[in-house]
Amino acid sequence: MTAISYLSLAALAFFVFRPTTQLYITDYWEHRAIVMEVIRHGIRLEDPIYAEGASSRQFTPWSLLLGYLARWTGIGADGALAVGAFLASALLVAGVHAFARIYYARPWAPAVLMAVLTCGWGLPPLIWTGFHSLRSQLHSNYYPASFVFALTFVVWALAVHVLRGGRAAVMAAGTLTVLCAIAFITHPLNAMFMLLGAAGLAVLERGASMGRRVMVLASLAIGVLATTCWPWFDPLALGRAGAARGQATFNNFPFFFHPLFVVGELAPLWLVLFVLPAQFRDFRTRMPVIALGVISAAFVVGGILDVSVSHRFLAYVALALQLMLVWLILDRIDGQAPAPLDRVTDTGWRVMGIAALALCTAQVALAAQQLAMPWALADRPRPVRPVGKEAQAIAAWLPAQARVLGFDSAALVLPAFGVRVAAFPRPMPLSSSDGARQADYRRFFSLHTNTCERRAIAARWGVTHVVWLSHELPDWMARELARQGTVVAPLAEWRVIRAPLSC
Among residues of the chain, what percentage have pLDDT more than 90? Predict the structure, then answer.
């Protein structure tokens, strides 16, 4: 996956096809709501989801940059998000190039690392926030997690530069501090892996002086501490929400922890386990091996304990394996494959090379397919719709001060167009009422809730309308709601009932 071909696909994805905007169920709409809030109010921000005076964890430097870009240029929220997605893609290319050149110190390293990161996944690769296959990136590089993932390689390159006695070390360390602070505010989870990786390099880099190790570690620590000055929220306080348990509704889908899924998703990477002992003994390759052990253990334990964010650790298990695989490929190019793969014949290596080329071809083809057919490989294909136009029309149809209780996608999409919701289908950790809202949302759409209880729930949160999409709401629930009010179909699959509901 060369830089030019990768960026060409990214440009097509974000400026032409825009597959994420054709789907109801994507985090794109939450981020669009935040950018719209910046366009409307600048830095005088209020939560565009609940409008209850609370802040939002999405009020980040990245969101402010995109919001002001839209505000000053007039390109709109969608235009700014497209530019941001492409910039994140370009930053990934630059970061991978910088890190690979200094860490692996081989001329082929940037191309090999980029190919392994984007194509070193099982078929078909999962599309999910934080997972960095090419197919997933063409959907999710709009998101802050992708920006921080790209920034990770820049930070790691700077850390290695300082550790290896590069020029202007003090300036590099200062830049390291600033980038760490930006990353930690923007997406604390991905930033945590970025920081742990940089700290691991500082501890394990062979030949680095103690002063340079301390310089890197101090830069990271200062960057994290500086985030407590961010005016909209304290990123360190979000750790409590991320470590919460029992949030399977929103986060820990069981399939992430199924052994067959894990084996299949990371299928091309298991080859490196054969050389794991040899790479652990080698100082050059020890860091990703240790990272693999630590992150794998956290993934398993987090899954057992149902820790909210633990499913996302799998992407970093993949990253550790990919860093190890790059070492293996580069050593093979130099004719120095570690034991026991040093016994593989030239014919065996040629067969593996052909298989790798076929895998990369398949990954690019699947990514390209997703541009025009976003749900092509889904277990339950969903309709591809002009979601933005539909939601904008629904928002215009609703009264100006409407507050809706939306089922699933309806609640996810409408805040991007200025409609307040009573409950949001994603955790809102900075809202003191989010837990109660989520509990009432589940009760409202439960088979075991009677009509009077639904009326009381709607009244408690000032609901003026109940909104859903006909292909998402179960038939039994649609019939229940029809008994509580007149169902209106203002557009396509959108359905609305006015409150108060009958009892």
Answer: 62
